[in-house]
Amino acid sequence: MFQGSYFRQVGNKLNPGLPDLLKDFSPDKEAAVLDIGAGNLRDAQYCLQYGFKKIVAVDNEPQCLQFAKPGITYCIQPIQQYSIPADQYSMVLGCNALFFLSPEDLMALFPRIFQGLKKNGIFFFNLLGEEDGWVKFNAHPSGTRVYSSNQELIGRLFSGFRMEFQTEDLGYDENGFCRHVISFVLSKP
Ligand SMILES: C[S@@+](CC[C@H](N)C(=O)[O-])C[C@H]1O[C@@H](n2cnc3c(N)ncnc32)[C@H](O)[C@@H]1O
Question: Where residue 142 sits, what CATH number does that domain have?
Fold first, then answer.
């Protein structure tokens, strides 16, 4: 579902943490970036300006094509079906998008991301924790189903990756729903 009001709300503001991530890990700009659930391309565009040679954005919503920009390859396809080439990416982004995938789809996706990353490549994304009200009350503003991830699932998803960083945020949104967001940076050893 097209998330127009979300895109209006976030505009071109970056996902917090992306500039620091680039500073701290210096992913190889000669390699490619993959942005999963790229939406209005706010992060992909920053990566383009930052100097990455190739940026691939994937989103399953055809209306997102209105955000397409020169220099960014925009593929309209569910990430479950997108063929991730091996050993290509120095950075994969999955911000505010992976919680739309079921645990089974995540379990199938993470090994594909792992093989798509180059050595030392990084993967920056977030998931919803078990307290999250969008999940508990099926209340995502778009009406789309979202999923939480428990520790057991997270342990299985991260197999093979090195955990670099994790932050957990608990708060309330404007509709009074608890928001439980866990952000991660993983790397490929
Ligand atoms: C909340 S937006 C986040 C956009 C952007 N990553 C950001 O942080 O602003 C989530 C995006 O994920 C996309 N999405 C949801 N399920 C997807 C899937 N299975 N494959 C690809 N994209 C998906 C939606 O269409 C939407 O554009």
Answer: 3.40.50.150
Is the full-model pTM beyond 0.90?
yes
Alpha carbon nearest to ligand 1 atom 14, residue: 37
Q: How many domains does the chain have?
A: 1
pLDDT tens digits, 103-144: 999 999 999 999 999 999 999 999 999 999 999 999 998 999
Q: What are phi and psi of 171, to 5 degrees?
A: -165, -165
**Of all protein residues, whose CA lies closest to atom 13 belonging to ligand 1?**
37
Indicate if ligand 1 lies below 6 Å from the C-beta of 6. Answer: yes
pLDDT of residue 174: 87
Residues 33 and 89 sit within 8 Å (Cβ to Cβ): yes
Mean pLDDT of the chain: 97
Residue 149 inside a domain? The answer is yes
